[in-house]
Amino acid sequence: MDGVIIKAVGLVAGACTSCALIPQVVQTIKTKKASDVSIFMFVVMLTGNALWVFYGFTKSDLAIILTNLLTVGLNVTMLVLKV
Length: 83
Hints:
Helices cover 83% and strands 0% of the residues.
């Protein structure tokens, strides 16, 4: 498979998984209620995504870096709203 196609697939896949958190963030901001949200899940996700960002830098892979930075931001937002 062509390298450009593989990078595009990586970006789309990363964007899909990153954007999956957006509805939760929006709902939490609208309702101002985060009591039903698991803080442990977001801590684990934040840790994993931060490690993916590090890995992306070691591989100079922009798709991994950008999509996981987005997810790190969303996880931090949820943790701030939860605490």
